[in-house]
Fold each of these.
Amino acid sequence: MKFHTRRPIALAAIILTASAALTACGSDDGGDSGSDSGSDGGGELSMTMLPKNLGNPYFDTSTDGAEAAAEELGVEIEEVGPETASPDAQVSYINTVAQQGKDALILSANDPEALCDAIDEARSADVKVVTFDADTNPDCRDLFINQATAEGIAAKQLELISEQIGGKGEIAILSAAANATNQNAWIEMMEKELAENPDYADIELVDTVYGDDDDQKSFDQTEALLQNHPDLKGIISPTTVGIAAAARYLSDSSSKGKVALTGLGTPNQMREYVENGTVESFALWNPSDLGALATYAAAALANGDISGEEGDSFEAGELGEFEVGADGVVLLGEPFTFNADNIGDFDF
């Protein structure tokens, strides 16, 4: 499911017009201690990309974007990471980045606080730290490349599920890990919107469960939701692993066409389920663009072109110019809705 072209022009145009989730490269000797880190300003910059976990199609795609940007910049980049999405599993990789004297770490954090000590050690070794997709405490890193605002992502998913269930009925959320920073922010916003927005007065959130970004566990949690809530009308899964697993379960169940499913997924994962009528629509940004933007930002930091202060600006190739906002946040854009009318136009 990897997206091998640099970035689909159609998707870039749509997302930018609209407003604006593997295996380790351990055989790449260029990332080892004998490499030129480029810290003297005259050599090649050396970066490490650390997603939440490997083997996740969403992060496969963000890494493709990062590698394409690195190639354009003349930057060395390697991907490393755990097989399972947990903060403890990421700590050793962060420590290795510091020991190797890398110029930058690009990280999707599995916990907002638990990684901060390791990140502090890396920053003390003059490693620039850019988070993407899921943030840490802002004090722990230099920049956060945010795919979209929590409010925007929450609003889009509620809008889609409301349309699909006719604005009333019981819904549930199938999330990733219980401590996933971005998931929890989106869920909090959805809960707030459900409680306060009169448009959703007839929608009741009856359960939130966690699949830990594991395909089988997410599949099993979908089955449990349907068993525990026989009147369930819809499921929101704001995670690419979860929504695909839930769609796979629904597509072969008696609930197909009766229980709506939306959330965040990639077109290649979800195409089958959109085309067979299991899923009407879902949303996402372009994770390839997200990985690319994080790489451009990390290079700008490592080269001293920006310091990460609010108001700093930098160029990100074909993506254009971006400005650093409050708390060191750089915003990619707004989520895009995929459905039967357009899903065939995309390949990632």
Amino acid sequence: MERRAFRVNGFVVVLVLVVLGGAALAAGLRSPALLIVLGSVWGVLAMLAASGLTIVNPNEAKVVQFLGRYVGSVSDAGFQWVLPLTTKRTVTLRVRNFETAKLKVNDADGSPVEIAAVVVYKVVDSAKAVFSVDSYEEYIAIQSEAAVRHLATTHPYDSHDPERTSLRDGAEVATELTTELRDRTELAGIEILEARITHLAYAPEIAQAMLVRQQAGQVVAARARIVEGAVGMVQLALNRLAAEGVVELDEERRAQMVSNLLVVLCGDRATQPVVNAGSLYA
């Protein structure tokens, strides 16, 4: 939708006005009546030309309208001149960021969570940003909050299934959020550069219960790892004893040794050894 507006260097226009003014003054010196006429004509031309002068800052665009009709945009920085009697609206093309408020949403598992995100964006089509929406800044704010809410309701806070994406999977969640926001804001001439979660926590009313749940999960995972390692160590010990012929054990004694070794290796407290000074079968 954006197109380039007709423009001329502003200093050239000013120079032309000065030359025309000097020529009108030189010609008008011959006759007072001619001076008044030429001065009036020059004054009207100067006012018309002055209405087209504008200053464009770096990373900024001027959206030019003539009697309500869009005639183009000027993004070349400097002192510019466009069509006279036009209105010019400034749109910044700088990279900007917006941080949503902390939103309280139920995740995919129904647990209330607090979530917030930061969105980095810039305007790439000044005409769409001005004419497609009332205020592109307000539009990006509302759409960002809507996208964050939708993201939170479609993913759990924490997932024990490796094939299921959770809100704690930063890279995947950021990519999904960025893609959704790009689809939502394209019609407003806005490009989403990045969107990331900046705050994620359980709601205060369930935070303690979820902390206990997470701790229990970590304990179970740690115990499973310990048991896995202990079984390997017991198997290695029995194989070495049998291979080197240190001692011959029947099935009952092997089972007892396995039990004792597992208690020693898997216990969370230090064990007290008992020395058997008599016969093994006593």
Amino acid sequence: MTGEGPDIERAFHIEPFRDHLGFERGLSTRTIDAYLREARRFAAFAASEGVAEPAGVTYGLLRDHVAWLADEGLAASSVARSVYALRGYFRFLIVEGALEADPSERLEAPRAGRPLPDVLSVHEIEALVAAGDPEGRTVPRDNAMLEILYGCGLRVSELLSLKGRDVDLEEAFVRVRGKGGKERIVPIGAYACSAVGRYLEALRPELDRGHSEGCVFLNARGRPLSRMGVLKILRRRVERAGILKRVTPHTLRHSFATHLLEGGADLASVQEMLGHADISTTEIYTHADRSLLRQVHRSHHPRG
């Protein structure tokens, strides 16, 4: 995510917030660090969406931030902690006089145990890709984006950080920079290879006006596509495809893993492709069908 740095910290009153937490509220160092982490993460998100100061923050932007946290794979409890921290941050901004109204007032924390996003069926995935506007100029880009999200199971942040050098269509893989800067290699299927190849050949050179920063996916102005840009594209496609489920970029990642497991892939391989540090996370986010796993065990284990 772009937008981090000293200027953003000053604009969003991060240092005064630290003083408030320590000197006025007397919180522990650990609690202060947690509050500051969430405030900085939100400030960076806001800046990446073109909001340069707290006065420009809206309830809608806060909801988008919470959705982004969930799409990044954070547990509901972690997202809830972020919401509580942001409420405290905005109360501080009100007291400081940096804001007149609190945009976090109606922001709700997700409940623990909330179901993960719906999985799309293979038919729904096909309908999503086929639902592009035939007259739309950016259809090749949008198709490539959807095929990569679903075909490689990428987080939206990973998609947006892809550079040209990270995509090898001849060897059929992408190099992905995940959480904590960790890199992994993910295979690209035939459909995604074809879609990305068409986009790179037919549209991206036309979009690139020298401000691409080397990113694969660009907006109509030739700049790197933003997370909100991805969400808008996806929402239009979902509506055109007549899909009634709530679909986010993480839904495509979730569908990727679920379809692999249903097709007989082993959990460790799916874990590696998703970039999960702990295999228990893979089990949670893929909703592994226990009966399917039992069937795989019986079929492949010598004492199954």
